Amino acid sequence: MCRSVHDNGSHSKSGYLSFTTGRTVPRAMHWLLSPTNIFAPASTPAQSIFDLSRFVLIVTGAIFVVVFTLLAYAVVKFRNTHASDGREPAQIYGSTQVELAWTVIPVLIVVVLFLTAARVIAAIQNAARPSNALEVTVVGHQFWWEYRYPSLKIVTANELHIPVSDPAHPTPTYLTLLSADTDHSFWVPRLGGKTDLIPNHPNRMWMDPQEPGLYLGQCAQYCGTQHAKMLLRVYADTPEDFDRWVQEQSRPARVSPAISEGQRIFERTACINCHTIAGTPANGTFGPDLTHLMSRQTIASGSTKNTLANLVAWIYNPEVIKPGSKMPSMGLSTLQAAQIAEYLATLR
Amino acid sequence: MSALPLTVPEANSQWNLPARGPVAMYCLIAAEAAIFTIFVVAYIFYIGKSLTGPQPRNVLRVPIFFTVCLLSSSLTIHFAVKLLRSGRLRSFALWWLLTIALGAAFLAGTASEWRHLIYDEGLTIQTNLFGTTYYSLVGLHAFHVTVGLLALGTVAIFALLGYVKQEHAGRAEVLSMYWHFVDVVWIVVFIVVYIVGR
Amino acid sequence: MSTQSIAWPKSEVGSRPLAERLHEWVTTVDHKRLGILYILYALLLLLVGGAEAAILRIQLIRPLYNFVSPQVFNRMFTMHGTTMIFFVAMPVLFGFANYLIPLMIGARDMAFPRLNAFSFWMTAFGGMLLYFSFVGGDGLYGAGNAPDVGWFAYAPLTAQTFSRGHSTDFWILSLLVSGFGSIGTAINIIATVLCMRCPGMTLGKMPLLAWLNLVMAALVILAVSPLTAAQVMLLVDRYLGGHFFDTQAGGSAVMWMHFFWIFGHPEVYVLVIPAFAFASEIIPVFSRKAIFGYPIMVAATVCIGFISMSVWAHHMFTVGMSSAANTFFVLSTMAIAVPTGIKIFNWLATMWGGQIDFKTPMLFCVAFLFQFLIAGLTGIMLGAAPFNWQLGNSYFVIAHFHYVIVGGILFTLFGAFYYWFPKMSGRMYNETLGKLHFWLFVVGFHLTFDFMHIPGILGMPRRIYTYEPGRGWDIWNLIVTIGVFFQAAGVLVFIVNLLWSRRRGKIAGRDPWDAWTLEWSLPSPPPAYNFATIPEVRSRRPLWDLKHPEDPDWQYE
């Protein structure tokens, strides 16, 4: 269902990786690439930025070449060769013509750059929202991501599933960005530029990945101790995969006939004050919703694989995996932690 | 190059540069104006945004009398400096003391207004956005008035002891520039808080 | 002047006791001594800030490394930034301004010597307060209460709820205190330049260093004050229960950003304009030509000063401002590139047709030209808002601004150190060591900051204490860290050179560089009163006029 991290797109037989726009990159350059490369756009906003950036790079590159050459030439040609035995060179105090030239030309360049950037700003920020766009509310927390799908009545955490968008019939995803505490920033480079999550200041952004796959990113606004491990995982699913995921998430929590020891400890301890497991007494919202915890590949906001062993370690003492995490160690014994982990492992 | 004859024979003998005192005071005024601007901007931005608590139109009473006191003190200090320039030391001291009295009256007015707001209306700096921005802005201004009064008071003590002479008029003028600035700030605060913000 | 020399018997009195000499330095109001105090203070803190950077880079040398805990790392990057900007860059530039301006305009001291001393000690105390935070609170474990909110201390991270303890308070108070010092120095510089020039030195005839520091001082007055205001507001929030930035009460976290950057952007021009001043004095002397286009250089700097007050929100492109606001700030940001570019062209034209002598000061200034060009171009990239939505808050930004501050400002500062060291100490520095410093530092600088752009492009955000493997960032972080050691070696050579040359350097005499501004007419080091007779000048290069009476500047200006 979800492809591996390094699979950035379809592979053609000639050994090239092709990106959504059909632009190909030689495989030899693969070592330069990264799953979070801003120059590997996979969504329209990222593509618009990429196109603008190429233009800006060309212009600034040209300026660099010209001025660098002039500087290098001056430094070499006008070295003191001690040939003029102490006479000072001709003193030139200025030249209005030259000054005018190198004022007017930069002004023209600036005007062009400004107009180009202004156009892209409008294209991205003022894009018309199609009526079938998927709405997701993202709430940033210290140090995890909450995702609410109001129209689908789904709440999940840390791993965002969105449908791919067919360019012929676009189904973009619009995110409303909120924060429960400090400032955060949603940055998945291949899907778009970053937008901040600021309390009392809702923001909007949109993305329309055209290739299914996993897109990585992380929080890009310092939000406290564990800012570094507030990772982003966005799964762009094919329509079938997305529907299946929605159905799974919409189901209530799996309830086993007998209440396990782990569930008993979970419901007795303060766990229920921070976490929600739909259909049980656990209804806290300070921490991630755990109703379908096993549908996620990672825990601790993408920083740790979701395996039983890691779950036990995390529950036993989150400080070891993510020092400064807001989840306290509840003073459980390793046995209790293992039992809770076993219970959580049933929450598919 | 031991003794450098840097003097050029035909150089002009008229070399007039501004006096240091007023230049420094203008710079200080510019810095203070920048500080006040930020507080005023915060005040204006938060007008109407308080979620709870008393609102300006319900609790603010326009302090006409105390404003008149403060603004007239600008006039009195102007006269005082003029008198000092012309050497009329007794009259200077009188008008200077009058300035201080008017400034002190203004502060008393602010104090009584705050007393009313805190005890009768329940508005403190913690109450809501209005409370925070109001007390901060008016308080910052009152702080500057206080510092001004301390400076003016120091000069008053020196004057009464006979140390202030006609040649000190320049320094008194520099101090009066600060006082005029404090008054101009009050005009801005008055308009923003008691007229626009209500 | 009599040529008879008098033979004095060897003095029986030893040098004055250390306590007396220290007391003289502590109570001095002499602009030259205060200048040196500022410079030495800044040098000390440069080493401290550099050590903090080294800690950061070692932690990031490979993914998921455990050299320091996240808490310590977050304090290190906050302290590194705060130290370098407020307690290294500003003091050292104020120090040079204090030392040089009266000498260059023919005055005996700054306009307000006691204010000068007060300003220095306020700055020094602010720094001490900032570093005291390491020992407050929990003690050294987790680095005590040292600030950990980032050097721009965004709300609401700085609210009591999210920053319990005093780390934020140390940040606020140390900067409040040193901010008063900065404003005091700025007032002093403006009053000195406007009121204390020697006869004949109209504003159009003062050295560019005086002009540029005048503009810098005006910016300090207009820019540091908003920071002071914002910090007072933050204190009101933290201690009086205020709601300026309290989002729960309807307050705005974005407002802090606006206030901070209204300070923060002009601040970087406060730092770079004196660097331009150094380049504008050094490049002409070592090219043996007058500065090209003096009036335009002044006009461009004044323009930069004005425009710099209108670009601040380009630090906030990702915050969610309207497209109209974003567009405006793109325009103003691009606009400021024009006068800045003009200055580069003027320096280039100064060298053009000259006879360039590559002594150490000139080496640093030439490197500055190349590096500032690149810094300006990456700045243009960041100014294009949509591009900023990708590059902002990433290692690309860190690379950009270090390119400006280290590649631009620090390089010209090193140039200034070498250029004026003979005047300040009376002795020449060691040229071989100077060149060694240059080459070590240039290699280290480029290793670190050229390659640092790449992780930014590959998606690495800033202020992270570690990173995942498999993002393609590993090799670049390694190279960046290696560069740090070359830079450290260069700085070490520099310090050794200064210390050694102070005692053993060749006697410099008044004018080792055959330069043209008034300070080179005085003995090295200058006497306490500077000028025995206040000079009168007729052109921008009074010493050129004296050395070339057949071809004086005032015939052409």
What does it look like?
The complex is a heterotrimer of chains A (348), B (198) and C (557). Chain A has 348 residues and is an alpha+beta fold. Helices cover 32% and strands 18% of the residues of chain A. Chain B has one domain (21-196): Four Helix Bundle (Hemerythrin (Met), subunit A), CATH 1.20.120. Chain B contains 6 helices and no strands. In chain B, helix 3 runs antiparallel to helix 4, helix 3 runs antiparallel to helix 6 and helix 4 packs antiparallel against helix 5 (129-160). The model of chain B has no long low-confidence stretch (mean pLDDT 93). Chain C has one domain: Cytochrome C Oxidase, Chain A, CATH 1.20.210. The longest helix of chain C has 36 residues, at 70-105. Classes of the chains: A alpha+beta (348), B mainly alpha (198), C mainly alpha (557).
List the SSEs and their pairings.
The complex is a heterotrimer of chains A (348), B (198) and C (557).
Chain A: E1 16-18, E2 24-26, H1 44-77, H2 96-125, E3 134-141, E4 144-149, E5 154-157, E6 159-163, E7 173-179, E8 184-186, E9 195-197, E10 203-207, E11 213-218, E12 231-237, H3 239-250, H4 261-268, H5 271-274, E13 298-299, E14 304-305, H6 308-316, H7 318-321, H8 334-344
Parallel strand pairs in A: 3-7, 6-12
Antiparallel strand pairs in A: 1-2, 3-4, 4-5, 7-10, 8-9, 11-12, 13-14
Helix pairs in contact in A: 1-2, 4-8, 6-8
Chain B: H1 20-45, H2 56-59, H3 64-85, H4 89-120, H5 129-160, H6 169-196
Helix pairs in contact in B: 1-5, 1-6, 3-4, 3-6, 4-5, 5-6
Chain C: H1 18-26, H2 31-59, H3 70-105, H4 113-132, H5 167-195, H6 208-239, H7 253-287, H8 294-308, H9 323-351, H10 360-383, H11 385-391, H12 395-425, H13 431-451, H14 453-457, H15 474-504, H16 542-547
